[in-house]
Amino acid sequence: MDYNLYIFASGSFLLLGFSIHMLFTNIGNTYLNKLLASMMLMRGLQMIYFIAVNTEQTLIVSVLFNSLGPFLFVFGAFLYLYVRGFIRDESRLQKKDLIHFMPFLFAFIDSIPWYLLDAATRADFISDMITHRAFFIKNTFVIFPYHTTSLIRNGLLLTYFILVWRIVLRTGIIKNRRNNPVLTNWILFFVVITTLSNLNLLVNSFINIFIGSTASNLFLSNFRVFIQSTILLGFLGYLFYNPKVLYGFVFVSKEYAVPGKLAVIETVDLKQEEELLENQQTEILANSRKQTPTIHEEEIDRLKAQMISIMETEQPFLNPDFSLGDLAYQMSLPQHHCSYILNEYVGKNFREWVNEHRVNFFIEHYPSLINTQTIVSIALASGFKNKNTFYSAFEKVTGQKPSQYFGK
């Protein structure tokens, strides 16, 4: 087995392991978990099939050859539904989305004649496939011609990739990736790596259609394997360099809940979080009063203006983890100086002040985003850690619930 197959074997077992883990976990958004697990399972089995063909494992090839085919017709649908569901905070399949799975029925019907062949004929086909190192071969036992099914399958995959990139670009998550770096990094990483790997598979399929999968084309086959192995090696290398990109999306645990629509990955008790923040603010305020800074009025006016400028120009409040320590660091001041100025001259503690900016940001951007995003997703993009904190802060700032404020 050459190094390409070693890489394929490693990648396939990783994908299968991740998919089994996600299929049986009940943490986070189980709908998105199962969509992602299904895609990983399909690609993992496809890679095992490839390894079986190249290592002449007749039994594995015969099991996967026709049974895997129909599922590949809906890989693009799973990808589109996952990306759309992730961005729009969907937690279940809609009835209208069942149309995306119609190609599976078409491919399944097309594969029925294979199971009606006698064992000797099937064995001959499998032997021919192993000889030619082909995922599909030109055959006469199916209902529709090989070229037709391949073009339909590849056309569907291309169409879904266009839809995926369209929804990614239209939602503006690339432009606003600093607002939710962990979540945005994951969905962009997933879409890019999936696009690259599937483009190579599309090239492979088109070569089989227009040139043919014969022994004379083994050089092209090996070259395609090299490209796919390079993509997979880059994928694994990136994961070793930045494993956190998987936390909450593939590595799903109680500490890292899977988000829906660019949502929160931290699972926290809201009451505990509120109490902790209140205690921190009380402690800082108490310390600031015990150690009242000796700052001239002119200097206080300058520092207050600097605080306001930072919030308006740099918008650090969009980071859900923005803290008093971060503000103090930006201003090169002790934390209790910042807390003193906010409490005595702005009239709000740090948390109230930051949440007010987040609420104002939400109000400003709500009209232009509500047609493509949910209220919760806009709130998360405004810097809130979860929907409960948002609703509490919104009502405290405006005196109304969002639905009342916007007249809904």
Automatic annotation (TrEMBL):
It holds the Pfam family HTH_18. The chain crosses the membrane at residues 6-24, 36-53, 59-83, 98-117, 151-169, 181-203, 223-241. The keyword DNA-binding applies. InterPro entries: Homeodomain-like_sf, HTH_AraC. Keywords: DNA-binding, Membrane, Transcription, Transcription regulation, Transmembrane, Transmembrane helix. Residues 301-408 form the HTH araC/xylS-type domain. SUPFAM superfamilies: Homeodomain-like. GO terms for molecular function: DNA-binding transcription factor activity; sequence-specific DNA binding. It comes from the Bacteria. This is Helix-turn-helix protein. It comes from Mongoliibacter ruber.
